[in-house]
Structures are given as C-alpha cells and as structure tokens.
Amino acid sequence: MTSHKEQQNAADFYDFESALPEEERKILARTREFMRDEVRPLVTDHWADGTFPMELIARFRESGLVGLPYEGYGEPGPAASHLLTGMMAMEMSRVDASVATFFGVHNGLAMYSVQAGGDEEQRERWLPGMARMETVGAFALTEPLDGSDIAAGMRTTARREGDTWVIDGAKRWIGNATFADHVVVWARDVEDDQVKGFVVGRGTPGFTAEPIAHKTSLRIVQNADITLTGVRVPETDRLQRVSSFRDVAEILRATRSGVAWQALGVMIGAYELALRYATERQQFGRPLAGFQLVQDLLVKSLGNITSSWGMLLQLARMQDAGVFRDEHSSLAKAHVTARMREVVAWAREIFGGNGIVLEHDVARFFADAEAIYSFEGTREMNTLIVGKAITGESAFV
C-alpha cells in the first residue's frame, strides 16, 4: 500500500517543484502548510452553507503570502517569479478552489489592475494596504448581458463632470464584491467610447453589491451582482494608465494563466483524494487500487496532471522572460481546464456513490471545476484566440 508521504508527492511525478529555487520552494511549502492548517478545516461547512470564512482574511494577513509579485509594495525582497505564484495558486486550489479564487481576485486581478493601470501615486496609495490584506480588492468587468463579448458590448458608462466621473451600469459575477474595500470597475467613457478603469470604495453612494444565491460551484466565493447608479468617483481614482480595452486585455492576459494553475491544483486535489481512497477502500476482498480499470483512471489522471504541469512550467518561464503572448495563456487556460474536467470526473467515478457526499471532498472538486472551466474566458473564446494566432484568420463573429 502507498504510504501517506508518498501520496502527498504522488502528483508531482516528474518533480516539477525542483524547478523552483530553494527560497521559493520554502514559500511554496509555507503555502501548503497554510492551506492544510488554516483553510482545510473550514471549507466543507462553508462550502455547504455558501458562506466565506471571514476569519481567513486576518490569517492571510499574518501569513506573508500576500503581495509577493509586487516588488516594493508587498513582502520585502524581490518580486516572486511567475512560476512561484503559479504553483501557489495550484497549492491553494489543491485544497479549495474557492479560497484560491478569493486570493486570485485580490492578489491578481485587483492588485495587478492597480500595478499595471495606476500611476505611481495610486500604486503607493493602494498597493501596500492590499499587500498586507488590510484592504481587500475586487475586479468588476463582466456584466449581466455581456461576458465573452464584453470588449464590444460593455454597457456600464462613465461620464466626466469636471474632476469627477459619474458611473452608471451593472456588473455580474464579481468575486469578493460583497465585502471588498476597493472594487476596480471598468466602464465605457461616453465621450471617446473607450474603456476606463476606476477604483470604487466600499460605501460609495449609488454602489450596491447583492450576493448571487443558489450557486452549485465555488460556493465559498462571494460573487455579487453590482448596481452602479450615479456613482461619483474623483479623477484621482481613475486608473491613469488605462485608456482603452487593450489595457484591460493586458491585465487579463497576465492573470488568465493563474486560472490554468488553479485548474491544475483542482486536478491534483481530486487525483490525490482518489488515489488515497483507492488504496484504502476494499471491494471483493482487495483494495480498489488492485483493479485494472481503477488503475487506468488513475494513470490517465496522472498523465493529464503531468502534461498540464509541463505546459504551465514553460508558460511561466516565458512570462518571466517577458516573451509570452495572449495565445500562450489562452491555450493553457483552454487545454488545462478541459483536462481538469476529465480528472475530476474520473476521481468522482472511483469514489462511486461516496463521490457525491461532501465529507469525501471529491464532490466539491467536481462541482468547482465547472466554474473554473468557464471564467477568465470560456474554452471556445480561448480557442478562437489561439486559432487566429496559428492561422492568421479571425473566426470571431
């Protein structure tokens, strides 16, 4: 029988973790311990109830894991590599994809919007507090009637009145929005028809965020419907280095790969659960792991994990070298999330009837995979981005 220690490392069949330098391996180990000790005991009940464990914000604040990519604004020392931040997203999702999504929205989408789109004064004003998680961020792009076509279809508008902007519209599926201190809101300037970014503070008059109920995926994430009615934002809170949707696309390009790493973490979490269950569960007088069909599912799962990890390893190296493009992150997101869907289904299959009971965890991974498969660009949209890159022909309608 496989030992618990061997199972803990079983998913890293090709020792990809060794690609990290020693100091970054220590940070990854700290991430693993944090998720195991602080997060894992909380997630089942909160997932069932559809609530967020607010006490985690203070624990993240003390963990030293927030703000690592932002040199000069986050933890002391050089900025973390894309490989480390990717593997951190993987480690978080290996325990719970909802908490990984909360962290990714704050530490990725919201903070990177300020880093990439803000001027130096804005970075100094917002990033240090966000890096200490004294304040929490959200990212409001998707709308009730526009998701994949948001670049052309954005209906939220902003009009300038002197040194103030007035924002009207609605956003949907906005993670962290019910409790975030800073919400990065994207709106179309009525004067030049270009997309601008605004940091809207919690409690701003005209801003409301209502939680989306009855979700069957990522239930811990507090997604919200946002309504903006005459929301007034000073010019000083408009992201000064954003002038069109092209700038928004740059942010999405950088963060989309993080979702692929999340998908890898979900695969690993489901695979490890299935492997452990197969070695412990007895049927017909022997462990499930002793049956050929079960071994086939486990090996196919490990193959998906290993090939996806290799793809993401190279993508992270390209990001660190500054040579990756939209199609590189799109291929990874489309491919890895599709492989994730297969792995969580095979893992649930190995559990049989127990696979639909939350106490065995695999049902949570199975359900959460569906949201990860769709957000940050559907498989179809990412396929068209890659298709245009390799053929030179645009198939977008």
UniProtKB/TrEMBL annotation:
UniProt domain Acyl-CoA oxidase/dehydrogenase middle: residue ranges: 138-230
GO function terms (MF aspect): acyl-CoA dehydrogenase activity; flavin adenine dinucleotide binding
Cofactors demanded by this protein: FAD
InterPro entries recorded: ACX4-like, Acyl-CoA_DH_CS, Acyl-CoA_Oxase/DH_mid-dom, Acyl-CoA_Oxase/DH_mid-dom_sf, AcylCo_DH-like_C, AcylCo_DH/oxidase_C, AcylCoA_DH/ox_N, AcylCoA_DH/ox_N_sf
Keywords, ordered alphabetically: FAD, Flavoprotein, Oxidoreductase
The organism's place on the tree of life at top rank: Bacteria
Descriptive protein name: Putative glutaryl-CoA dehydrogenase
Species of origin: Streptomyces ambofaciens (strain ATCC 23877 / 3486 / DSM 40053 / JCM 4204 / NBRC 12836 / NRRL B-2516)
Ranges of residues in domain Acyl-CoA dehydrogenase/oxidase C-terminal: 248-390
Family membership: Belongs to the acyl-CoA dehydrogenase family.
Keyword Lyase: no
